[in-house]
TrEMBL record:
<feature type="domain" description="Flavin reductase like">
    <location>
        <begin position="18"/>
        <end position="173"/>
    </location>
</feature>
<dbReference type="Pfam" id="PF01613">
    <property type="entry name" value="Flavin_Reduct"/>
</dbReference>
<protein>
    <submittedName>
        <fullName>Flavin reductase</fullName>
    </submittedName>
</protein>
<dbReference type="GO" id="GO:0010181">
    <property type="term" value="F:FMN binding"/>
</dbReference>
<dbReference type="GO" id="GO:0016646">
    <property type="term" value="F:oxidoreductase activity, acting on the CH-NH group of donors, NAD or NADP as acceptor"/>
</dbReference>
<dbReference type="InterPro" id="IPR012349">
    <property type="entry name" value="Split_barrel_FMN-bd"/>
</dbReference>
<dbReference type="InterPro" id="IPR002563">
    <property type="entry name" value="Flavin_Rdtase-like_dom"/>
</dbReference>
């Protein structure tokens, strides 16, 4: 099968998200200019550079009370900072609860019953028991093609790692089993890993 996205795929559901998988989930916590916390998951998320460490996430829709975007991007525009919390399999239900479309003044930490902790290098909250959290200052926000599509890039200024995830000096993802986003309403979980040596190593 071949299709041009501009002409449609003819299938019952869009296959694009199912093709580009698995995707890590960036559970983005922000704080608005009035000090209200927000938490929302984004599956268009990844690390993009080592030195300095940098990450990105993309927001692809808008809310009526935020104009051209959603709460996360709107808050980041105002404050210039955000935190990426890594999602473990055990947090799948509360992560999903935090994805609800609610009014801008609703704190998703409270809505979903998620414990929060203060960040160290930025003025925002983080998921207290997340396997890892990356505190970030914005480097750029890029408007992408299409309505309400924004890519947010940030430099990581502080990193929290849960002690039980560090094994023999390495961050061991099998200790918490990362949740990943697939297509449609599907998710995956990482339970096993293997190593490959590059030819030039």
């Amino acid at each position: 099968m071949f299709y041009r996205p501009s002409e449609g795929h003819g299938l019952p559901h869009n296959p694009f998200n199912a093709i580009v998988t698995p995707r890590p989930i960036g559970w983005i916590s922000t704080r608005d200019a009035d000090g209200r916390d927000n938490l929302a998951p984004y599956s268009f998320f990844n690390a993009v550079a080592y030195v300095p460490p940098q990450v990105m996430f993309a927001s692809t829709s808008a809310k009526a009370d935020r104009g051209d975007t959603k709460d996360s991007v709107s808050n980041i525009r105002d404050t210039g900072v955000f935190c990426v919390n890594i999602v473990e399999y055990a947090a799948r239900d509360v992560m999903n609860a935090s994805s609800a479309t609610v009014d801008r003044d609703v704190d998703e930490f409270e809505l979903a019953g998620i414990d929060k902790a203060a960040c160290d290098t930025i003025a925002a909250a983080r998921v207290a028991n997340a396997p890892a959290s990356l505190e970030c200052k914005v480097t750029q926000i890029i408007q992408l093609e299409g309505e309400s599509n924004f890519a947010v890039f940030g430099e990581v200024t502080g990193i929290h790692m849960r002690d039980d995830c560090i094994v023999d000096g390495r961050f061991d993802v099998t200790r918490y089993q990362p949740l990943t986003r697939l297509g449609y309403r599907d998710y995956g979980v990482i339970k096993e890993v293997f190593s490959l040596t590059r030819p030039d190593d």
